[in-house]
Each structure stands twice: as structure tokens, then as C-alpha cells.
Amino acid sequence: MSETVATPEPTTLLDINQIQGILPHRYPFLLVDRIIEIVPQKRIVGIKCVTINEPFFQGHFPGFPLMPGVLMVEAMAQTGGVLLLSELPDRTGKLIVFTGIEKAKFRKPVTPGDQIRIVVDVLAFRRNVGRMDGKVYVGEKLAAEAILSCFLIDRGRVEAGAQG
Known about the structure:
Layout: H1 16-20, E1 34-39, E2 43-49, H2 69-86, E3 94-106, E4 115-126, E5 129-138, E6 141-154, H3 155-163
């Protein structure tokens, strides 16, 4: 009689409440549910459980729901943002914004019921400018990849500009 050995679930390092303490994003635009690996200043791995309840599935596409590629890229950016912001002592006054997307490729559709694993490796981060290599997996299959550029700004500067 053969025994089936269950693969242990990855340990959660940051849960959704801790992620919300780092990122400003909220429903329906928060695209990472938990963090399972962090190597400070180098690497982070996040998880998102994709459900049919995601609002984008209503229109993308009726009868054939697919997670939009741009949202997979956003999930990479948010996961990388958790890593970079979590290392700042004054993060509540800061915001990381996208400045570029390079070499984006979408290789496998992501559909309701999938759990995506978001892997982000820091290529460079100096003062307030960064570059990250992001990948999204469903199981062991690569679903999407991109090189992301970002810029760290003062949140007060953004809020002042919106009022002026």
C-alpha cells in the first residue's frame, strides 16, 4: 500500500492585515493575499487566490473568465512594493509608483480557482529608484513575467498635488 505524502503549505510570513499595513491598496485593487518568503532587499514571494468573485471577471470575458495580464503585472508590482516598503521605517509617508514595464510576456491564462505565486527579485534599488524582475506562476508553470521600474515618492507630495 503506497502512502501519499502531502506537501506542506508554505508558511505565511505576512497575512492580509499585515500587507494592508504596508500597502495603501484596498479592495478591489489589492492583488496579493499573503507573503510566504522574504529575503530582505533581494526577494519576496506572495500568493493570490483567484476567485470568480473578482470584479474584473464580469467583463473579461463573459463565459470565458481570464485574469487580465495587466493585473498580473500589478500583482508583481504590489508584491515588490511590500518588500521595498517593509524595509522603510517611515513607510506611512511614502508611496512606490510604477515608472516602467519592460519585456512583459503572458504565457499561460489565469482563471478562477487558480492560486498564483508571485516571485519578485530586486535587480537594483538605490535611494528612491528601483528595478525588479517579476514572475507569476500557476503551480510550476510560468504564467507571466516582466521587468518593473519604480520610484519612491512622498505621499504628502501626491496629496498636495491632488488638492492644488
